[in-house]
Amino acid sequence: MAKLDEKFNSKDWEWIAVHFPRSKRETMAKVAWLICCKCTPEEISQRKIDPRIVIPLCAIVLLDEIDISNLKISTVNLIYDYTKFKRFEQKQEFIDSLTYSISSSERWQSLFKTLDIDLQFTLLYRLIAYRPATRDDWRDIFLDVELKFSKELYLSLLLILLTVLLFFGFYIGVFFLEGINNINLFVFHLKWCMWF
């Protein structure tokens, strides 16, 4: 075991475990390293592995072990074909045909098969439709964007409120000027009080 510890560098693998509690991050990083570098495909296929480890391994670390360019299917067709299947077996056959056509390694296949069918499809779709993911993408995927959204919401509401106030201010100003020009001051004030 000491030999493995010497080769494991937590700084190289910490990005994969950022979605785990702080107390488990180093352990999960080591688990990811062991799965990726030391486990055989047979050992991998016998385990149920957390998708938070499998997805970055398949999409980032082991991406060079597959050849996505072999797929000649558009993403629209891909989604349409997948959504028309209702039964699990049909979905699994479709995913199997896609993974067969991407020429993947046994290690990548065994990791990929540990995901449930919908995660398998989503991962394949993302690999086909978008640019290759990076470590920073995985690290930032669950950033708290609520604060930014709430600031934008408050600013939008403030802008709407100011627009409405300006509109009513302009309307009142026009009413005021028109009233002064057309009638005597007493009638103007009477109309003004009745309006409010």
Question: What would you note in describing this structure?
Answer:
It is a single chain. By secondary structure, this protein is mostly helical. 70% of the residues lie in helices and 0% in strands. It contains twelve helices and no strands. α6 (75-83) runs antiparallel to α9 (117-129) and α7 (88-101) packs parallel to α9 (117-129).
User: Which whole number gives the mean pLDDT?
Assistant: 77
Rg is 30 Å
- The helix content, as a percent range, equals 55-70%
Low-confidence runs: 1-6
Please tell me what the overall shape is: elongated
Count the domains. Answer: 2
What is the string of SSEs from the N terminus onward? Answer: HHHHHHHHHHHH
Structural class: mainly alpha
Strand content: under 5%
Largest sheet: none
Measured between the Cα atoms of the first and last residue, the distance is 84 Å
Let me know the number of strands: 0
The total count of helices amounts to 12
